[in-house]
């Protein structure tokens, strides 16, 4: 496990590098197969067709994997980074590019953030309501204190007059 961690940390620390590493691994076997097939093939045209078709497929697969995997992950990371940079902005939503687990991840995260935003909105509203109630109670206590002081003054006046 330590060897794997070392290799990943030092050589394959991005998705692009992981894809390129795997594609290179496949390319080595493809080149080896072509090299082994070259002397046995009586017709060199078929060998060249295999070389060109395999190379085109290899390049297409590399770009396609980059498009399918790296682009959505970079967009997700970029959106999260931007949201965090703006002070945990809960209005940010993750984009949904593909129709696979990345879409599910985006949709579930967006649903979670929407629910969290709703809960925080309710908490904020309750805090405002509590503030208004506290203001009303405070005003009532002040009025009661004034009434009590007024009553105390009247009691003292009655005692003096009697």
Features:
162 residues, 2 domains, 4 helices, 0% strand
Q: Your description of this structure?
A:
This protein folds into two domains: 1-89, no CATH class; 91-162. 83% of the residues lie in helices and 0% in strands. It has helices at residues 2-10, 15-37, 44-85, 101-161. Helix 2 (15-37) runs antiparallel to helix 3 (44-85). The protein is rod-shaped, with a radius of gyration of 36 Å. It starts with a helix and ends with a helix. The model has no long low-confidence stretch (mean pLDDT 87).
Largest sheet: none
Number of E-type strands = 0
Work out the radius of gyration: 36 Å
Class from helix and strand fractions: mainly alpha
Distance between the termini: 97 Å
Q: Sum up the overall morphology in one term.
A: rod-shaped
**Which segments are poorly predicted (pLDDT under 50) over 5 or more consecutive residues?**
none
